[in-house]
Amino acid sequence: MPNGLTMTVFATESYVEDEFDDVALLRTLEKIKSKLRVYFICKMPVSPYDNLLESFDETRRTNFLKALDRFIADGNAAFKEPNQLSSSKQWKKLLSEKDSPLGKMKMLMDKFQSLGKS
User: Fold this and answer.
1) Quick check: helix, strand or coil at residue 11?
2) What's the pTM value of the predicted model, to 2 decimals?
3) 43 phi and psi, to 5 degrees?
4) DSSP 118
């Protein structure tokens, strides 16, 4: 998994706003995935514009993209779940840091979103 700085850059460059947090999270992750499928790069937005993913070998790239795919698929399944309690349990599991490394992305997105409201 990329470090927190990299995930923050991803979130700031790819954030998709929606009135529903779950939809915003999924659309943002889909946008990140789409960008990474074209170029596996995450440039710092300030000089010297380092590629934060430069150290990722093929295994780390593949593992990260698979984790994104799983999270998006599971999030879409939770979103489509007609039973609200079941859906909530699925989201709780997805967003728990101990259960999902991408749970940190939700926290970063929450911070980013709160900055825009200030």
Assistant:
1) helix
2) 0.77
3) -85, 135
4) -
